[in-house]
Specification:
Length: 560
């Protein structure tokens, strides 16, 4: 029995000895030795060995990466109350590695480890409260947990607590305490702490303003790939602050940060491409960078996209998208975007404005942003862009665009009121566009109906008072016209676009007619045919007087 007892004791000693060898190798980052020493004890219920092995599997150090295996090992260690195992299990739940992401489970396991005084878990709990991720945001609670970890010398907690003292989040702003905490963390090589110290020197917060020292600290952080520091160095080269002005270096640093998804850097690099500063001018590339930044709800990028879509610079012109992006920027508190949005709205239909507002209200940060509007919303933009006489359209207000189908093909009718003297409406017209996407062409059929589709009005109300509201003032003579929407032109005059079919010289024609309601001095008034939009093989010259003989097509590409 004594011999057997000695053998058991030797076995226990050997197991502990090997696990300790593996742990020391793990701490020394000798992962091959660590795995060789620890792997024989997988399943031996040693929480330290299970946690070290799980860490190797998570990071693929000395073994192929395997999140599922890591989860199993951390779980075994956590179930016996081993703090590192609990914290690492919390990390997997946070990231969704090897298990569906679950913030509640992550907080549960981090809290168990933090209650045992594990500084990394205390810091994680602080992060949850700081960001409001999975719990109600509470800076005071965040700082309590940060301090617990910082008091143990945990550098990331020192960094975050220092940042909150610098910003006055959950504590009274105190630059002295902020500097001391950030310096401790920076001395341990934490890039965010180096960046924070650089910010203090750049702005003279609690220390003498020193741009050169700020650049030095930013470069230390940037050398570790800190995107905020890369963006800040880019700005300092751009502005010539603490370094000679150098747009090429500025763009280079902006790109390094933008490649990591830094929204401000994406915007700044987009500005460089737009203005040919340090890079070759490239409007589409600028638009793409603004889009990435805007998807993170960066207001300056949203405003920039509003301008690009308004001018068709680097993107296909769209007043709907322009309005939408300006609206997003306004929601972020960018006051200058409001005037830009309202200016764009002056040449939009109420339907376009409603669609733009819906698009902006339905979007949430992180989701892809719209890059095109509906054809019905695009039609008015193409009418304006395709005109050879831009002065006419600069004095026009577009009221509505409607989709309709003739012989299986979609058309878009655009109704406009042209401003006359003293802001009175001088004329109303219907134009039509169709889009042939198979050839990537936009075809404008505007201005082709001679005067038959122009209705002139001696309108008493002002140009700005013309509103396209449906008014059931008069019925049509045909049943198929009863459901046609009517649009108020002011002074009791209304326009509508209705389906029509008729016979001309034995040839059947299908199309649409434009009707205008004219008030009568002695009665209710009547609807007059102001012109027709027809399709079919009309080769005769004996059609009705208001019937055009053909639809003239002027092919054009966006931007021409």
């Amino acid at each position: 029995m004594a011999i057997f007892g000695s053998a058991v004791g030797v076995g226990v000693w050997y197991r502990k000895h090997q696990i300790e060898i593996g742990h020391r190798a793990f701490l020394a980052k000798d992962y091959t030795t660590a795995y060789a020493a620890l792997s024989p004890f997988d399943g031996w219920r040693s929480p330290q060995a299970e946690t070290d092995l799980g860490d190797l599997y998570v990071n693929g150090n000395g073994v192929n990466k395997d999140y599922s295996k890591a989860f199993q090992l951390f779980q075994e260690a956590a179930y016996v109350g081993y703090a590192r195992g609990e914290a690492n299990l919390g990390l997997l739940y946070t990231r969704g590695d090897g298990v569906p992401a679950n913030q509640a489970d992550a907080i549960h396991w981090f809290q168990l480890a933090a209650d045992q005084g594990l500084p990394s878990a205390e810091w994680e709990i602080g992060l949850f409260y700081d960001t409001g991720n999975g719990v109600q945001q509470d800076y005071v609670q965040a700082n309590i947990w940060y301090k617990k970890a910082a008091d143990q010398g945990y550098a990331d907690a020192e960094t975050n607590l220092g940042g909150n003292y610098m910003g006055g989040h959950g504590v009274h702003q105190d630059y002295t305490k902020a500097f001391a905490l950030l310096q401790k963390a920076a001395d341990q090589g934490v890039s965010n702490a180096q960046y924070g110290l650089g910010t203090m020197y750049e702005n003279g917060w609690g220390v003498p303003q020193d741009s050169a020292q700020a650049v030095s600290l930013f470069k230390e952080a940037a050398a570790q790939g800190n995107d905020n520091a890369e963006e800040e160095i880019g700005y300092m080269y751009y502005a010539g602050q603490g370094v000679p002005q150098d747009y090429v270096k500025a763009s280079r640093y902006f790109k390094q940060a933008a490649d990591q998804g830094n929204a401000e850097a994406e915007y700044n690099l987009g500005v460089d491409y737009l203005n040919a500063q340090g890079v070759t001018e490239d409007d589409p590339k600028a638009a793409a960078l603004f889009m990435k930044s805007a998807e993170q709800n960066y207001a300056s990028a949203e405003d920039a996209l509003g301008q690009l879509y308004d001018n068709g610079k680097g993107v296909e012109r769209s007043t709907v998208l322009s309005y939408m992006y300006f609206n997003l920027a306004v929601a972020q508190g960018n006051d200058g975007s409001k005037a830009e949005r309202d200016q764009v709205a002056q040449n939009m239909t109420l339907g376009q404005i409603a669609d733009a507002q819906a698009m902006s209200s339905e979007w949430t940060p992180g989701r892809p942003l719209p890059t095109t509007a509906s054809y019905e919303d695009l039609a008015p933009d193409y009418i304006l862009a395709s005109s050879s006489d831009h002065s006419v359209y600069q004095n026009s207000r577009i009221w509505f665009s409607r989709e309709f189908t003739i012989s299986g093909k979609k058309y878009y009718a655009v109704f406009m009121v042209t401003k006359g003297g003293d802001y009175h409406a001088a004329a109303a017209s219907i134009s039509v566009v169709t889009f042939d996407m198979s050839q990537d062409l936009r075809q404008s059929l505007s201005g082709i109906y001679r005067q038959s589709t122009q209705a002139n009005f001696a309108q008493l109300g002002s140009y700005g008072d013309v509103e396209p509201l449906k008014k059931p003032h008069a019925s049509y003579t045909a049943l198929d016209r009863l459901d046609a929407p009517e649009f108020d032109l002011g002074n009791r005059k209304y326009a509508t676009l209705v389906h029509d079919s008729y016979e001309g010289m034995g040839e059947a024609e299908q199309g649409y007619e434009v009707f205008v309601f004219e008030p009568s001095q002695y009665g209710v008034g009547s609807w007059l045919n102001a012109g027709s939009i027809a399709t079919g093989d009309d080769t005769t010259a004996n059609c009705d007087g208001d019937q055009p003989s053909s639809l003239l097509k002027n092919s054009w590409r966006p931007g021409l």
